[in-house]
Amino acid sequence: MSDPAVARLQDWLRQHEQELLEDTREIIRIPSVEGEPASNAPFGVECRRALDLALAKCSSFGFKTTDLEGYLGYAEIGTGDRLILVLGHLDVVPVGPGWHFDPFGAEISEGYIYGRGTTDDKGPAMAALYAARAIKECFPELNARIRVAFGCNEESGFKCVQRYVKTEEEPTFGIAPDAMWPLCHAEKGISNITLTVPIPGGDFALVALSGGQRPNIVIDKCEAEVHVAPTIRTVVEAKLAEKWDKNVSFEWSGEILKLTAVGKAAHGATPHLGDSAATRMFRVLAEICPTGAACWFELLMGSAQISGAGIGISGYDEVSHELTCNLGVVTCDNGKIKLLYNIRYPVTWSFEELRSRLDKWVISIGRGFAVDSMTDSKALYFSLDHPLVSTICDVVTQETGETTPPGTMGGGTYARALANTVAIGTCWEGDGKAHETDERIKVKNLFRASRIYAHILYRLATL
Asked: In angstroms, how far is the first alpha carbon of the chain from the final one?
């Protein structure tokens, strides 16, 4: 490393790797999935417990800490007008089935730590904390403040960062360690769309449907119940005997046919990496339905197309490329199916354009489809010559020898909610993808991330 100041920081981090590892494992063991609100714990007691642990660690390191009523907490070092912000999150998505390791065990196997939050986002958050700690220990007189913040509601609403921006100053520069290397300079707009549609009656009538945990997770299990009239049961049984999808099982309970479809979870921003159990369910229902309702199930199956074409919203731009659509939750209640989609739309689009496309489809398709609700989180976009972008790219090139250009993504990070902030990388090939089973990070990669974060923070603080 040519810069002796950076070399000093990274030597300190190498000497404290075991501490970083154990602190990371300790916070991974807390099952900080959002829960019922409690006193000073708006996102549940486990998220509160994770925040308490993080702030206690920071206090023990000599940071000044602030707790924003359990929504978010932060720790700060240094003096001066310039504020360099690191914003990670301690909440995690639900676990889901299929794990081979305890999701909150923080077990180490063949050089990897396994557990929910290892890459998204507890591991990177702790690596960033240690990077700031290295600066505190090595350069206590640095003429800038470095603030490490820990949110508790990134995965399901951003209420934590919304609380933060109400009272806290804008950063001079900010980074959110929650993306790809070197950084993400464009994040697609995000919309959660809920559609409802009446369930047709008849001899083959859907009476129950449930699948999905969150809109931003590909559905990995879907269950349905259908009332089958005696007059068509023989035909339905014959079709069931011929069904090809072995990931859909069934059993009879009188005139009720119960079906279970199994898929593969993935992040809603990359639905092509998953396998939707809801799509499997709708396809099987269409295949075995001997009545006119078959085309209705085919329409539901088509609505889950990851391009968004099935609900009339597919599209593209040159910066962030294709829109993606994830049908994340399906339910059945009061004679209607409710379909909750997680949409990632191109950065050059407006929310109004997305809504217009959807409205046109609803009108054209008929059948009682209606837009029940629609939210929006606007896109983020920084030019490649912005000093925040160019500085981070330069650091990552120095550290890795690679000249990978900044990326774009459908994932939504804290960066979109704060001024002067971008999301940066967290892990490398072989580390587990966010929101999937057996999430993991290589121990050496955790240490490597901390050293790169320290270099980035130092450079931004001394620009």
From this structure: 18
